[in-house]
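Handout, section 4.2: multi-component inputs.
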Amino acid sequence: MNRRLFLSRFLYSAAFSGLLPLTNIANLSAKSPGRVVVIGGGWGGLSAAKTIKLLSPEVEVVIIEKEKVFRSCPISNWVIGQIKTMEDITFSYETLQKRYDIKFIHDIASYVDIEKKIVKTEGTILNYDKLVLSPGIELDYSSIENWRPDYSDIFPAAWKAGRETQLLANKIKNMRNGGVVAVSIPLSPYRCPPGPYERISLIASYIKNNKPGSKLIVLDANQKIVSKGKLFKKAWDNMYKDIIEYRPDSKVVKINPNEHILSTDFDDVKCDVANLIPPQKAPKLLRETGLIKEKEIWASVNAYDFSSSIAEDVFIVGDSTSQISVGRVPKSGYVANSMGKVCGLAIVAELYGIKKFPPSMINTCFSLVSSEEGISVSAVYHYDEKLKKIAVVEGASGVSPESSDIVKDNAWDWAKAIWDDMLT
Ligand SMILES: Cc1cc2nc3c(=O)[nH]c(=O)nc-3n(C[C@H](O)[C@H](O)[C@H](O)COP(=O)(O)OP(=O)(O)OC[C@H]3O[C@@H](n4cnc5c(N)ncnc54)[C@H](O)[C@@H]3O)c2cc1C
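Output:
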């Protein structure tokens, strides 16, 4: 067997059998194969960066990340539900940086030239051999009348973990007894399909025990609960019948900050605490770079390796990618983490001229339905050669039977394991 064939087979089995950390291509090659710049030190970006360094420490990897610390969206609903703190979901990048010799630039990537292969931040200009973009989502308030950015304290989204997460948690905690919370959900696709419904459950669980007489009004732009519908509905009927009022087909189109009102085409909802989760799209950096097709709002990629379908040597992973090109995978941290691994492996394969192999991915989304119990949905995905997309492996997916405390423990264990996977 020649060296290249050996290497490609080894890589394949390593990547999909858990041997990935043991693989070290650099030992087989004396020359540094190039520089990879990663924009976004979140779920997709960290996973791509670490995969590349595990496979080939000789590759120079630079992450451009505007935040100084990593804050996890998964488990951030638990902060809003008063069962975890911001401290529990905030982590340093230091271990990853030191252990794998990954360079970090904490700055905003403001410009990418895909012809000259350079990235600009306020303080630096970097050239790249390969570029990975995993910048997440941009909140899009353009369809909401009266919106102004300084209203985000009155109507926090808390859809990127950080200041607004704490702000919303505080508002819930300090609300009067007999108060009204309103949560608005945008039309799918948005980041984390079950996320809003978990949040609603946890707020309801908190006010049931701590804020007598309070109510929670859900304004869902979708026709029905987008994910784990039957399980959420059952839990809400059992536990929060007098608390949650669910209104489907109720898109928020207008706000009144002085009166604290969210309006749909049919109704005005006056509330004490408003959580306005707006529609979402890929961040403007991707649009300005020309990486999004006309009339689309998410970035189109080749589902085989997450390379951009527009520019060479550019890879896009995570929530920014379009389901039209990838297939029907959810915009989740677990999927972004898997995409990062597939893309990292593909980049190393390209740098060394090794054959690429088809992706295989899994996703489990855990959601708490109360401070004590959770539910989950899982799926296994493969690359469908005919469709040229990621598709569900039939019969290998499903939802958990009922809410249980075991799923709550599973959720916390999953979070700890995947944080470790990305950050240590
Ligand atoms: C409330 C909530 C609960 C969730 N729960 C779960 C869950 O239980 N399980 C699950 O799998 N998923 C969950 N998710 C979804 C998950 O958080 C996302 O799918 C995941 O974060 C996507 O990863 P990403 O890399 O695309 O984006 P992100 O993780 O958001 O990373 C993007 C990074 O890029 C940085 N960035 C952006 N633009 C620039 C720029 N121009 N220059 C420099 N840096 C930049 C940002 O600061 C950020 O750190 C949840 C989401 C929410 C909101």
